[in-house]
């Protein structure tokens, strides 16, 4: 299987069903940290549910939809990036991310998202890339800013996560604005 170097000690790779044990171990290490804003820890609580989650996404990828990619640091899965939405017909997609604490502060998400956005825009011809983020998730907002996204607005209390209503900021990047430098 392929992987793309993000740094000397970090790689981006397709996250597939057969990675379920590794994925679950990663989620277990970062369950509370990741779960602040991302639903994976609540959906992958044991090996069977981790396989189900990855399998469901594999079926969506096969239909040219959702795609998951893992980020390994020194051989250990520490996070990932994804297309939570990908619609070739409309030319719109969404990019997202998650990390456990061991992967934070190294620029891995920014580098990995550059790979996804470059592929979406330059290979698949996407016109618009979105970034949806809880208003309280300042690190994710900083990634959107580094990647050149424009903040469009806030959907107030639209997202119920772990019993709490969160505001969601919508950021976007148009193909003509995308520069890989």
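-> sequence recovered:
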């Amino acid at each position: 299987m392929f992987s793309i170097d993000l740094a000397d000690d970090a790689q981006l790779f397709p996250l597939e069903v057969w990675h379920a044990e590794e994925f679950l171990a990663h989620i277990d290490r970062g369950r509370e940290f990741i779960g602040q804003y991302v639903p994976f820890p609540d959906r992958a609580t044991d090996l069977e549910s981790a396989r189900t989650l990855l399998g469901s996404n594999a079926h969506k990828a096969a239909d040219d939809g959702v795609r998951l990619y893992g980020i390994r640091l020194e051989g250990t899965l520490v996070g990932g990036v994804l297309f939570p939405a990908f619609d070739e017909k409309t030319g719109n997609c969404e990019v997202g991310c998650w990390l456990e604490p061991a992967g934070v502060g190294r620029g891995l998400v920014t580098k990995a998202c550059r790979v996804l956005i470059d592929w979406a825009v330059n290979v698949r011809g996407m016109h618009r890339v979105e970034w949806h983020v809880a208003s309280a998730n300042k690190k994710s907002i900083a990634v959107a800013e580094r990647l050149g996204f424009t903040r469009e607005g806030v959907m107030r209390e639209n997202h119920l996560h772990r019993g709490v209503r969160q505001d969601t900021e919508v950021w976007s990047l148009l193909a003509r604005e995308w520069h890989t430098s």
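Strands lie at 4-7, 10-14, 67-73, 76-87, 92-99, 128-134, 150-161, 164-174.
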